[in-house]
Amino acid sequence: MPSVPGLRSPYVKVGRLVYFGRMLDKIRLQAAGRLPEDYQANFGKAFDLRCCNFLRVRHDELQARTLAGDLGDAQLLAWAEQQGGARTDEECEVWNGFMMKRGWRDPAAGILARRIAESALHAAPIMTMFDYLDFDEGRDPVTPRLWEH
């Protein structure tokens, strides 16, 4: 998949959480008719659903609140925490660790291997689903190591 303008890396944090900003980007891109077809099958599912479940909000409610257009990303996260209850720093640390390592020696490893093969990314140093998403979209998450800043 080539670069998707307006779709950030899953490693980029909004507040204390990885992935949340990417999900907001997908919501906005889908509403604008600019979310590629390859992304439609997992829209509101997979990592989107995991993120919403972690926040205890429904994806359709977050989608509606996002598309109202009056809140920025940090404000949308605050809204989600208000709806579903705030998470502790430890819960956020566990969430981030789980998400950033998904596909590495866990039940998703087979899916990751299949996607790497389908995308002909065998030479890339991909160890996780986040790495795969970045390399597949033309970003190199390994060199800058954004998740460590």
Structural write-up:
The chain has 149 residues and is mainly α. The protein has one domain (13-148). It is built from eight helices and two strands; from the N terminus they run ββαααααααα. It has helices at residues 20-31, 37-40, 46-55, 59-67, 73-84, 89-101, 109-118, 129-136; strands at residues 13-14, 17-18. A two-stranded antiparallel ribbon has the order 1-2. Strand 1 and strand 2 form a beta hairpin. The longest helix has 13 residues, at 89-101. The mean pLDDT is 94.
How many structural domains are formed by the residues? 1
What is the overall pLDDT average? 94
Structure class: mainly alpha
Determine the strand fraction and express it as a percent band.
under 5%
Task: List SSEs in N-to-C order.
Answer: EEHHHHHHHH
The number of E-state strands comes to: 2
Number of helices: 8
Distance, first to last CA: 27 Å
Compose a concise summary of this entry:
Helix content is 52%, strand content 3%. It has helices at residues 20-31, 37-40, 46-55, 59-67, 73-84, 89-101, 109-118, 129-136, and strands spanning 13-14, 17-18.
